[in-house]
Amino acid sequence: MAQPFAEQRELVIHTGLDPTLISELALEASLNRKQLRKRGISLHPGAALVPAVLRNNWQAWRQHERLRLWKPWRRDDHLWAVAPSLVNPLLQERRLSRLQHQVGAMGFRLAVVVHLLDGREQLARDYVRALTALRFCGSLDDYVARQLERHPQRYLVDRLFEPLLEWLGARGLRFVLHSAAPADRLATTWGTLDHLGGAGPLDSTTPPIMAPETARTWAAPVPLTAGLSLHQVKVAQELLQGLGHPPRGRQREQLRKSLEARVAAAASDEPPVHSWAVALGAGAAPAGVSLAQDRLGLKVWGMGWPATASSLALADSMALTPRRRRQAMRRSRRRSG
After folding, report:
1. Helix/strand/coil (H, E, C) string of 135-186?
2. Global pTM value
3. What are 254-293's pLDDT values in tens digits?
4. What is the pLDDT of residue 204?
5. 258 plus 158 within the same structural domain
6. How far out from the chain centre does Cα 196 lie?
7. For 256, left (φ over 0), alpha (ψ -120 to 50), or beta?
């Protein structure tokens, strides 16, 4: 059974480190807008939230709110906004405090849902983007070594989100771990929030909102057109072969045009790549990245991440009593040193 939801309405910001993952979630949520409304959730466009967070410009957001408030049967809804590229701004305490104040003035409580991929898949996707943008030349192993040396905070997620956990608490900050395949993003998200008590509204006159029994409850979106293809990656690797450093200036522009021309001339019936880690034959994630992900799971769940983000696995993990959860966390800390 679903946990009771708080009486105060929530503005739930869905964001994450991987833009493709967030785009898939936004597409699926938009396709299921009517389904979400039946469960007491109004979907606001993330594009209206980004300027509000970054520039404190709420004009576009208030316009959508006026349209919603014209319909009395939707005035008690929770609000969901799926917006990429908001992790770093939300990690700035001053900006987050201002956002909380603005959201509170509108009568909502702020909640943030961070959507994550496995560290191995995230590193592979970042490598593909850097390669096709001609910002890196070299192998996947070279890229992983460079990223963990220069930008370790992006992949050591327990340290990255520690400030947010302190500022928002476990109730206001939730995490959803997705598989690489772009399927059931919304069902995975709903199952997580349902058991954490933040998927929809509940008051004294409304029965508990139950999570969908199967993923079929949600309409499946048409697969996204692949922004990147395996052929495009191979062409980029060929163009960059032999270079000791990423191209710049005129050389980069020439290589970019060559890349676009060769990709455009190729057949367009190549199937989309769901897991870049598998497509590139990536090895296991570095030990530090895996340990950081495990430590974050311990902080969030009181034990490890569920094997899958299904409602049943989440229910089992959340069924621990507070005492047993604290004991599990103490044992994990002793094991991790």
Report:
1. CCCCCHHHHHHHHHHHCHHHCCHHHHCHHHHHHHHHHHEEEEEECCCCCCHH
2. 0.81
3. 999 999 898 887 766 777 788 899 999 888 889 999 999 8
4. 39
5. no
6. 17
7. alpha
- In this structure, are 211 and 242 located in the same domain? no
Sorted by sequence, the CB contacts under 8 Å of residue 105 that are 6+ apart come out as none
Residue 146 lies in a domain: no
73-90 pLDDT tens trace: 788 788 999 998 899 999
Q: What is the extent of the structural domain holding 320?
A: 10-120+153-222+287-336
SS3 assignment, position 81:
strand
Please tell me the total count of domains within the chain: 2
Q: Answer yes or no: is 1 within a domain.
A: no
**Whether residues 212 and 236 fall in one domain:** no
- pLDDT digit string (tens) for 156-200? 999 999 999 889 886 788 888 888 887 788 888 887 776 555 444
Three-state secondary-structure class, residue 28 = helix
Range 331-336, long-range pairs (CB < 8 A, 24+ positions): 332/295, 332/298, 332/303, 336/291, 336/294, 336/295
Considering Cα of 43, then 47, then 52, then 58, what sign does the dihedral take?
Answer: negative
Is residue 127 included in any domain, yes or no?
A: no
Are 238 and 305 found together in one domain?
no
Q: Do residues 71 and 162 share a domain?
A: yes
Report the candidate in 122, 144, 92, 112 with the shortest Cα–Cα distance to residue 17.
122
